Amino acid sequence: ISTAASSLASASMSTDEPIPLNFNENPLGLAPKAQQAVTDALPNAWRYPDAARSELMASIAGNLGLIESQLIYGNGSSEVLKMALDALAQSNSQLVMPDPSYGVIIDYAMARGIPVVKVKLDGDWQTDLAQMQAKVAQHNGPSIVYLCNPNNPTGLVLPQSELNQWLDKASSQLSFIIDEAYVEYVAQAGFVSAVERVKQGQSHIVVCRTFSKIYALAGLRVGYGVAHSELIKAMQAQASIDNANLIGCVAAKASLESSQWLGLSLQSNSQAKALVYQQLSELGLDYLPSETNFIFHKVNGDSGLYMQRMAKAGILVGRPFNHGEGWNRLSIGTPAQMQYFCKTLAKFRELGWV
Ligand code: PLP
Predict the structure, then answer these.
(1) Is 147 in the pocket of ligand 1 (CB under 6 A)?
(2) Over pLDDT 70: what percentage of the chain?
Protein backbone atom coordinates (compact mmCIF):
# COMPACT_ATOMS: atom_id res chain seq x y z
CA ILE A 1 0.00 0.00 0.00
CA SER A 2 2.71 2.49 0.92
CA THR A 3 4.38 2.08 -2.50
CA ALA A 4 1.04 2.76 -4.18
CA ALA A 5 0.51 5.83 -2.01
CA SER A 6 3.95 7.29 -2.64
CA SER A 7 3.76 6.72 -6.40
CA LEU A 8 0.38 8.43 -6.37
CA ALA A 9 1.87 11.38 -4.54
CA SER A 10 4.73 11.79 -6.99
CA ALA A 11 2.39 11.27 -9.96
CA SER A 12 0.21 14.17 -8.91
CA MET A 13 3.31 16.36 -8.47
CA SER A 14 4.65 15.60 -11.93
CA THR A 15 1.56 16.49 -13.98
CA ASP A 16 0.40 19.94 -14.99
CA GLU A 17 -2.79 19.46 -13.00
CA PRO A 18 -3.10 21.91 -10.11
CA ILE A 19 -2.75 20.36 -6.65
CA PRO A 20 -6.26 20.23 -5.18
CA LEU A 21 -6.03 21.48 -1.60
CA ASN A 22 -9.50 23.01 -1.55
CA PHE A 23 -12.17 20.35 -0.97
CA ASN A 24 -10.85 18.31 1.99
CA GLU A 25 -10.56 15.11 -0.02
CA ASN A 26 -8.30 12.17 0.84
CA PRO A 27 -5.29 12.57 -1.49
CA LEU A 28 -4.37 8.87 -1.28
CA GLY A 29 -7.47 8.01 -3.28
CA LEU A 30 -9.54 4.83 -3.03
CA ALA A 31 -8.31 1.93 -0.92
CA PRO A 32 -6.94 -0.80 -3.21
CA LYS A 33 -9.70 -3.13 -2.00
CA ALA A 34 -12.32 -0.50 -2.88
CA GLN A 35 -10.85 -0.09 -6.38
CA GLN A 36 -11.05 -3.84 -6.83
CA ALA A 37 -14.63 -3.90 -5.58
CA VAL A 38 -15.54 -1.20 -8.13
CA THR A 39 -13.96 -3.17 -10.98
CA ASP A 40 -15.64 -6.38 -9.88
CA ALA A 41 -19.05 -4.71 -9.56
CA LEU A 42 -19.05 -2.89 -12.93
CA PRO A 43 -20.50 -5.81 -14.91
CA ASN A 44 -23.43 -5.81 -12.46
CA ALA A 45 -24.13 -2.09 -12.71
CA TRP A 46 -27.20 -2.76 -14.83
CA ARG A 47 -28.92 -4.03 -11.66
CA TYR A 48 -30.67 -1.78 -9.12
CA PRO A 49 -28.56 -1.13 -6.03
CA ASP A 50 -30.81 -2.62 -3.30
CA ALA A 51 -28.67 -5.64 -2.41
CA ALA A 52 -25.39 -3.67 -2.38
CA ARG A 53 -26.97 -0.93 -0.27
CA SER A 54 -28.35 -3.47 2.23
CA GLU A 55 -24.94 -5.09 2.57
CA LEU A 56 -23.30 -1.71 3.16
CA MET A 57 -25.87 -0.67 5.74
CA ALA A 58 -25.48 -4.01 7.57
CA SER A 59 -21.75 -3.45 7.62
CA ILE A 60 -22.06 0.12 9.00
CA ALA A 61 -24.58 -1.05 11.60
CA GLY A 62 -22.21 -3.82 12.72
CA ASN A 63 -19.26 -1.43 12.97
CA LEU A 64 -21.15 1.16 15.00
CA GLY A 65 -23.18 -1.24 17.14
CA LEU A 66 -26.49 0.05 15.76
CA ILE A 67 -29.59 -1.67 14.45
CA GLU A 68 -30.27 -1.04 10.78
CA SER A 69 -33.51 0.84 11.46
CA GLN A 70 -31.31 3.53 13.10
CA LEU A 71 -29.50 4.13 9.81
CA ILE A 72 -30.34 5.82 6.53
CA TYR A 73 -28.38 5.95 3.29
CA GLY A 74 -27.76 9.31 1.62
CA ASN A 75 -26.41 10.42 -1.74
CA GLY A 76 -23.50 11.90 0.17
CA SER A 77 -24.04 13.32 3.63
CA SER A 78 -25.37 16.50 2.02
CA GLU A 79 -28.53 14.58 1.17
CA VAL A 80 -28.71 13.32 4.75
CA LEU A 81 -28.56 16.95 5.95
CA LYS A 82 -31.48 17.76 3.69
CA MET A 83 -33.55 14.76 4.78
CA ALA A 84 -32.88 15.60 8.43
CA LEU A 85 -33.95 19.20 8.01
CA ASP A 86 -37.05 18.21 6.03
CA ALA A 87 -38.06 15.62 8.62
CA LEU A 88 -37.45 17.87 11.64
CA ALA A 89 -39.00 21.08 10.28
CA GLN A 90 -42.29 22.15 11.85
CA SER A 91 -44.29 25.30 11.29
CA ASN A 92 -42.40 28.20 12.82
CA SER A 93 -39.10 26.25 13.13
CA GLN A 94 -35.86 28.21 13.00
CA LEU A 95 -32.43 26.85 12.13
CA VAL A 96 -29.60 27.95 14.42
CA MET A 97 -26.02 27.36 13.30
CA PRO A 98 -22.45 28.56 13.84
CA ASP A 99 -20.78 30.95 11.41
CA PRO A 100 -18.51 30.19 9.70
CA SER A 101 -19.42 26.55 9.29
CA TYR A 102 -20.40 24.17 6.50
CA GLY A 103 -23.12 26.13 4.76
CA VAL A 104 -25.08 23.74 2.54
CA ILE A 105 -27.90 23.47 5.07
CA ILE A 106 -28.53 27.21 4.69
CA ASP A 107 -29.63 26.67 1.09
CA TYR A 108 -31.92 23.83 2.11
CA ALA A 109 -33.46 25.96 4.86
CA MET A 110 -33.96 28.92 2.55
CA ALA A 111 -35.68 26.72 -0.03
CA ARG A 112 -38.17 25.66 2.66
CA GLY A 113 -38.62 29.17 4.04
CA ILE A 114 -37.00 28.27 7.37
CA PRO A 115 -35.31 31.31 8.92
CA VAL A 116 -31.59 30.82 9.56
CA VAL A 117 -29.94 32.33 12.64
CA LYS A 118 -26.15 32.38 12.30
CA VAL A 119 -24.09 32.70 15.46
CA LYS A 120 -20.56 33.98 15.03
CA LEU A 121 -17.75 31.79 16.39
CA ASP A 122 -16.27 33.15 19.62
CA GLY A 123 -12.92 34.95 19.93
CA ASP A 124 -11.07 31.60 20.01
CA TRP A 125 -12.79 30.46 16.79
CA GLN A 126 -14.85 28.03 18.87
CA THR A 127 -18.55 27.31 18.23
CA ASP A 128 -20.34 29.63 20.64
CA LEU A 129 -22.76 27.21 22.28
CA ALA A 130 -23.86 29.77 24.90
CA GLN A 131 -24.87 32.32 22.23
CA MET A 132 -26.60 29.62 20.22
CA GLN A 133 -28.59 28.60 23.30
CA ALA A 134 -29.56 32.22 23.81
CA LYS A 135 -30.90 32.34 20.22
CA VAL A 136 -32.93 29.20 20.89
CA ALA A 137 -34.33 30.67 24.12
CA GLN A 138 -35.36 33.89 22.35
CA HIS A 139 -37.38 32.06 19.69
CA ASN A 140 -41.05 31.43 20.15
CA GLY A 141 -41.20 28.03 18.43
CA PRO A 142 -39.14 24.96 17.68
CA SER A 143 -35.43 25.21 16.94
CA ILE A 144 -33.29 22.93 14.80
CA VAL A 145 -29.63 23.30 15.73
CA TYR A 146 -26.92 22.45 13.21
CA LEU A 147 -23.51 21.67 14.69
CA CYS A 148 -20.46 20.56 12.75
CA ASN A 149 -18.10 18.52 14.90
CA PRO A 150 -15.24 19.00 14.16
CA ASN A 151 -16.21 22.28 12.56
CA ASN A 152 -15.41 23.19 8.97
CA PRO A 153 -13.44 25.48 8.31
CA THR A 154 -11.74 25.67 11.73
CA GLY A 155 -10.97 21.97 12.28
CA LEU A 156 -11.81 22.35 16.00
CA VAL A 157 -13.92 19.89 17.96
CA LEU A 158 -16.70 21.33 20.12
CA PRO A 159 -16.25 21.62 23.92
CA GLN A 160 -17.48 18.20 24.99
CA SER A 161 -19.01 18.87 28.40
CA GLU A 162 -20.89 21.98 27.27
CA LEU A 163 -22.11 20.05 24.24
CA ASN A 164 -23.20 17.13 26.43
CA GLN A 165 -25.25 19.42 28.64
CA TRP A 166 -27.06 20.89 25.65
CA LEU A 167 -27.64 17.57 23.88
CA ASP A 168 -29.25 16.26 27.08
CA LYS A 169 -32.05 18.74 26.41
CA ALA A 170 -32.97 17.49 22.93
CA SER A 171 -36.75 17.41 22.47
CA SER A 172 -39.46 17.96 19.87
CA GLN A 173 -38.87 21.70 20.40
CA LEU A 174 -35.07 21.44 20.24
CA SER A 175 -33.60 19.04 17.73
CA PHE A 176 -30.00 18.65 16.64
CA ILE A 177 -28.34 17.84 13.33
CA ILE A 178 -24.75 16.91 14.11
CA ASP A 179 -22.45 16.82 11.11
CA GLU A 180 -19.54 14.44 11.74
CA ALA A 181 -18.05 14.47 8.23
CA TYR A 182 -14.49 14.49 9.61
CA VAL A 183 -14.98 12.34 12.70
CA GLU A 184 -12.56 9.61 11.57
CA TYR A 185 -9.67 12.10 11.81
CA VAL A 186 -10.36 13.16 15.39
CA ALA A 187 -7.56 12.21 17.78
CA GLN A 188 -8.46 14.45 20.72
CA ALA A 189 -8.87 12.52 23.98
CA GLY A 190 -12.35 12.69 25.47
CA PHE A 191 -14.14 13.24 22.16
CA VAL A 192 -17.49 11.42 22.06
CA SER A 193 -19.47 10.98 18.86
CA ALA A 194 -23.16 11.92 18.98
CA VAL A 195 -23.86 8.41 17.66
CA GLU A 196 -23.68 7.38 21.34
CA ARG A 197 -26.74 9.55 21.99
CA VAL A 198 -28.75 7.63 19.41
CA LYS A 199 -27.62 4.36 20.96
CA GLN A 200 -28.88 5.62 24.31
CA GLY A 201 -32.30 6.17 22.74
CA GLN A 202 -32.41 9.95 22.27
CA SER A 203 -34.96 10.73 19.60
CA HIS A 204 -34.28 14.28 18.36
CA ILE A 205 -30.69 13.98 17.21
CA VAL A 206 -29.50 13.13 13.68
CA VAL A 207 -25.82 12.39 13.07
CA CYS A 208 -24.59 12.83 9.49
CA ARG A 209 -21.54 10.91 8.28
CA THR A 210 -19.85 10.59 4.89
CA PHE A 211 -17.59 8.38 2.79
CA SER A 212 -16.35 11.50 0.92
CA LYS A 213 -13.58 12.41 3.33
CA ILE A 214 -11.24 9.82 4.86
CA TYR A 215 -12.83 7.05 2.78
CA ALA A 216 -11.98 8.98 -0.42
CA LEU A 217 -15.25 8.35 -2.24
CA ALA A 218 -16.40 11.95 -2.80
CA GLY A 219 -17.15 11.25 -6.46
CA LEU A 220 -19.27 8.19 -5.67
CA ARG A 221 -21.70 9.97 -3.31
CA VAL A 222 -22.10 7.81 -0.24
CA GLY A 223 -23.21 9.16 3.12
CA TYR A 224 -25.40 7.99 5.96
CA GLY A 225 -27.44 9.27 8.84
CA VAL A 226 -27.84 7.85 12.34
CA ALA A 227 -30.97 8.57 14.35
CA HIS A 228 -33.82 7.02 16.34
CA SER A 229 -35.80 4.54 14.18
CA GLU A 230 -38.92 6.77 14.18
CA LEU A 231 -36.92 9.77 12.99
CA ILE A 232 -35.21 7.63 10.36
CA LYS A 233 -38.68 6.68 9.05
CA ALA A 234 -39.59 10.35 8.78
CA MET A 235 -36.30 11.06 6.96
CA GLN A 236 -36.84 8.12 4.62
CA ALA A 237 -40.10 9.72 3.53
CA GLN A 238 -38.03 12.72 2.35
CA ALA A 239 -35.43 10.69 0.41
CA SER A 240 -35.56 10.25 -3.32
CA ILE A 241 -36.14 6.64 -4.28
CA ASP A 242 -33.03 4.65 -5.25
CA ASN A 243 -30.68 7.42 -4.15
CA ALA A 244 -27.87 4.87 -3.79
CA ASN A 245 -25.58 3.67 -6.54
CA LEU A 246 -24.25 0.16 -6.65
CA ILE A 247 -20.64 1.14 -7.32
CA GLY A 248 -20.56 3.56 -4.40
CA CYS A 249 -22.05 0.94 -2.07
CA VAL A 250 -19.51 -1.77 -2.88
CA ALA A 251 -16.64 0.72 -2.70
CA ALA A 252 -17.83 2.00 0.69
CA LYS A 253 -18.19 -1.50 2.11
CA ALA A 254 -14.70 -2.44 0.90
CA SER A 255 -13.30 0.80 2.36
CA LEU A 256 -14.71 -0.12 5.77
CA GLU A 257 -12.77 -3.37 5.49
CA SER A 258 -9.50 -1.59 4.62
CA SER A 259 -8.15 -0.81 8.07
CA GLN A 260 -4.51 -0.83 6.95
CA TRP A 261 -5.23 1.75 4.25
CA LEU A 262 -7.21 3.85 6.76
CA GLY A 263 -4.22 3.79 9.09
CA LEU A 264 -2.00 4.89 6.24
CA SER A 265 -4.39 7.73 5.39
CA LEU A 266 -4.30 8.96 9.00
CA GLN A 267 -0.53 8.66 9.16
CA SER A 268 -0.06 10.51 5.87
CA ASN A 269 -2.43 13.25 7.05
CA SER A 270 -0.58 13.68 10.36
CA GLN A 271 2.82 13.82 8.65
CA ALA A 272 1.63 16.31 6.07
CA LYS A 273 -0.07 18.47 8.73
CA ALA A 274 3.13 18.55 10.79
CA LEU A 275 5.04 19.92 7.77
CA VAL A 276 2.52 22.71 7.33
CA TYR A 277 2.43 23.55 11.05
CA GLN A 278 6.21 23.87 11.02
CA GLN A 279 6.21 26.15 8.00
CA LEU A 280 3.42 28.33 9.38
CA SER A 281 5.25 28.62 12.70
CA GLU A 282 8.49 29.59 10.94
CA LEU A 283 6.64 32.31 9.06
CA GLY A 284 4.81 33.45 12.18
CA LEU A 285 1.40 32.77 10.61
CA ASP A 286 -1.22 31.77 13.21
CA TYR A 287 -3.13 28.54 12.70
CA LEU A 288 -5.69 26.46 14.55
CA PRO A 289 -4.60 22.97 15.64
CA SER A 290 -6.76 20.78 13.47
CA GLU A 291 -8.60 17.53 14.26
CA THR A 292 -9.32 17.07 10.56
CA ASN A 293 -7.64 16.93 7.14
CA PHE A 294 -7.54 20.72 6.74
CA ILE A 295 -5.92 23.66 8.54
CA PHE A 296 -7.36 27.11 9.04
CA HIS A 297 -4.49 29.59 9.04
CA LYS A 298 -3.63 33.23 8.73
CA VAL A 299 -2.45 34.62 5.39
CA ASN A 300 -1.91 38.24 6.42
CA GLY A 301 -4.03 39.82 3.75
CA ASP A 302 -6.95 39.28 1.44
CA SER A 303 -7.84 35.60 1.34
CA GLY A 304 -9.35 35.87 -2.16
CA LEU A 305 -6.18 37.40 -3.59
CA TYR A 306 -4.08 34.77 -1.80
CA MET A 307 -6.26 32.07 -3.36
CA GLN A 308 -5.71 33.51 -6.85
CA ARG A 309 -1.96 33.74 -6.34
CA MET A 310 -1.80 30.15 -5.11
CA ALA A 311 -3.85 29.04 -8.14
CA LYS A 312 -1.31 30.74 -10.41
CA ALA A 313 1.41 28.80 -8.58
CA GLY A 314 -0.48 25.55 -9.33
CA ILE A 315 -2.17 25.05 -5.97
CA LEU A 316 -5.91 25.26 -5.34
CA VAL A 317 -6.55 26.36 -1.76
CA GLY A 318 -9.75 27.08 0.15
CA ARG A 319 -11.99 30.06 -0.20
CA PRO A 320 -12.79 33.08 1.94
CA PHE A 321 -15.20 32.46 4.83
CA ASN A 322 -17.48 34.87 6.71
CA HIS A 323 -15.63 36.50 9.60
CA GLY A 324 -12.42 34.78 8.53
CA GLU A 325 -10.86 37.80 6.84
CA GLY A 326 -7.13 37.31 6.47
CA TRP A 327 -7.45 33.55 7.05
CA ASN A 328 -7.61 30.64 4.62
CA ARG A 329 -8.59 26.98 4.79
CA LEU A 330 -6.00 24.60 3.43
CA SER A 331 -6.84 20.95 2.73
CA ILE A 332 -4.08 18.49 3.53
CA GLY A 333 -2.61 16.67 0.55
CA THR A 334 0.18 14.11 0.59
CA PRO A 335 3.41 15.00 2.43
CA ALA A 336 5.07 15.59 -0.98
CA GLN A 337 2.29 17.96 -2.02
CA MET A 338 2.50 19.81 1.29
CA GLN A 339 6.25 20.20 0.94
CA TYR A 340 5.57 21.89 -2.37
CA PHE A 341 2.92 24.05 -0.71
CA CYS A 342 5.38 25.01 2.07
CA LYS A 343 8.03 26.06 -0.46
CA THR A 344 5.45 28.13 -2.32
CA LEU A 345 4.30 29.79 0.90
CA ALA A 346 7.91 30.65 1.80
CA LYS A 347 8.26 32.26 -1.67
CA PHE A 348 5.11 34.24 -1.03
CA ARG A 349 6.74 35.58 2.14
CA GLU A 350 9.82 36.66 0.15
CA LEU A 351 7.47 38.52 -2.18
CA GLY A 352 5.76 40.14 0.82
CA TRP A 353 2.41 38.47 -0.02
CA VAL A 354 1.82 36.70 3.31
N1 PLP B 1 -20.36 18.15 5.90
C2 PLP B 1 -19.21 18.80 5.94
C3 PLP B 1 -18.78 19.41 7.22
C4 PLP B 1 -18.41 18.92 4.80
O5 PLP B 1 -17.26 19.59 4.87
C6 PLP B 1 -18.86 18.32 3.60
C7 PLP B 1 -18.08 18.43 2.37
O8 PLP B 1 -17.15 19.17 2.22
C9 PLP B 1 -20.08 17.65 3.62
C10 PLP B 1 -20.81 17.57 4.79
C11 PLP B 1 -20.68 17.05 2.39
O12 PLP B 1 -20.09 15.88 2.04
P13 PLP B 1 -20.75 14.83 1.09
O14 PLP B 1 -22.07 15.34 0.62
O15 PLP B 1 -19.80 14.65 -0.02
O16 PLP B 1 -20.91 13.61 1.94
Answers:
(1) no
(2) 96
